[in-house]
Amino acid sequence: MPHPPSKAKVYFAGLRADSRRNLFDKLDGLLEAVSLADRFKKGHLVAVKLHFGETGNAAFIPPVFVRRVVERIKAAGANPFLTDTNTLYVGTRGNSVSHLKTAIENGFAYAVAGAPVIIADGLRGEGVTRVKINGRHFKEASIASEIANADGLVVLTHFKCHEMSGFGGALKNVGMGCAARAGKLAQHSNCAPVVDPAGCTACGECSLHCPADAIDVGAAAVINANLCIGCGHCIAACPESTIDVRWDETAGRLQEKMVDYACAALKGKEGRAVYVSFVRDVSPACDCYGHNDAPIVPDAGILASTDPVAIDQACADIVNAETGFKNTALASGHEPGGDKFRGVHPAVDWGVQLDAAEAAGIGVRRYALEKI
Ligand code: SF4
Ligand code: SF4
User: Fold this and answer.
1) Distance (Å) from CA 93 to ligand 1 centroid
2) How far apart (Å, rounded) are the C-alpha atoms in residues 144 and 129?
3) Could you name the CATH architecture of 194-244?
4) Does domain 8-189+250-365 have CATH number 3.40.50.11440?
5) What's the gap in Å between 204 CA and the centre of ligand 1?
6) 228 lines ligand 1 (CB under 6 A)
7) Is 47 strand, coil or helix?
């Protein structure tokens, strides 16, 4: 008979502060609680996985907090770098050049954050390491090479709502956020990208970048779905932004696929992964949009754990325990205990990712919250 899952430790720092202990001191306390300094050795290259924010979005984690985390990793003798992967869709982070520019414009310059930015999946998302897994949907995952190559992982997450997973927490930051473009495409879609012929100038760039020779360009480009290997390179290569993903995956299956990918990204990093989540500016949608709508609940605090499932569960419980703001995107569940994520995205069962991750063995939903 299987043992019931034990409880994981999650540490919480509220946002109250005074002249003797500011929020950076409290962040230090959280990092000490999860033994950050003991997890990395001298010379380790540690990936600090975060979201630099799309241009126009202001809800991402402020660089001054990231700098504090960087300082603590350096104090342990390791070498941190800030990282994220290129997006599947065309925006200001769709290739490494515009992604780096966006990161710097949003404040993640070396002079501010104290560590270099390395986009983890190469110039256009071709930097892939294939990781074998025994997942529910995948036996192999396309993980961004520089994250796969890193010795350790510090996952900094802005916890907010999300239109496909209910909330965007640590699991999503790892599962979707550490996937190279091919991995993101595999999670979001069941089939090849599609060309909108109305926007196509027949320039042929997509065909030049296609490793599978799957694109014919006549009067307009046409993708042969039988040949397509789902790398997503054509999406990044099209100067007219006229190739798009068929966003056809259901929210439940997408969450399960995300968990498969989280298992792949964490493979080999056992004991060397730490999660810090910021429950502030809990916006109704992810930071990939070029705007952020008003938060739906009051800011709560910062959490840390070595368990990605427990920290997401704890963040969700904290958000749901709040009284929701009126005149925001929150349509229901305003009362303490009301489901805020369903209140914004009513069709999405956000618990799927937590159940799937627990079943996959990368964490547990039960936790003990310790205030620092
Ligand atoms: S996704 Fe990759 S393989 Fe498929 S058509 Fe685009 S470039 Fe070719
Ligand atoms: S790169 Fe874009 S515009 Fe050029 S042929 Fe391909 S789909 Fe058409």
Assistant:
1) 19
2) 6
3) 2-Layer Sandwich (3.30)
4) yes
5) 13
6) yes
7) strand
